[in-house]
Structures are given as structure tokens and as C-alpha cells.
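Long-time lurker. I teach an intro course on protein structure, and each term I like to show students one example going from raw sequence to a predicted 3D structure in C-alpha cell notation. This year I'd like something fresh instead of my usual example. Would anyone be willing to generate the C-alpha cells for the chain below so I can use it in lecture? Attribution to the forum is fine with me.
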Amino acid sequence: MKFGGTSVGSAQRIKSIARIVTDHLSKKEKVVVVVSAMNGVTDRLLACAKAAVMKDRVELDRNFSILYELHIRTVNELNFHKDEE
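-- Reply from a regular --
Happy to contribute to a lecture. Here you go:
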């Protein structure tokens, strides 16, 4: 199974993927999961690279902050806590 883009674009969608994978595992099926970047992340990473090449620290920081906030928000929405592992 391969998931990426809009299918991993939010915490709710990631939870849906987890249910799909869990369903297949509960049927004793062998599963391989490949997850690519969340929706918009690849474009942001390319914008970071371009800003770095252009030595545009403001644009680099802006794009990095957007990426950071996206991932922190998603993790918080998923309620990942180390003590729940």
C-alpha cells in the first residue's frame, strides 16, 4: 500500500490510513506500507531549497516554519504520546 499527498494531508486522513492497514493486518494479510510526503510538503521543500540557493533567509525561514507547524499540528491532532506506546 502506498499513501501520500492528500491521503496523508491531515490527522483525520492519517487515522483513516491506520484503520485500512489495521483491517488488513487483522485478516492476517502481509502488508507493506509506503508513505510519501503530506500534501504540499514536496513543494515547500523545493521552495526551501530554492531559497537556500538564492540565500534568501527570510523565504527559507518562512517555508521551514510552515513545514514545522504543519507537522507539529498533525502530530498533536493524532495525540501521539510517548507513554502510550
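Some talking points for your students: DSSP finds three helices and two strands in the chain. The first strand starts at residue 2 and ends at 5.
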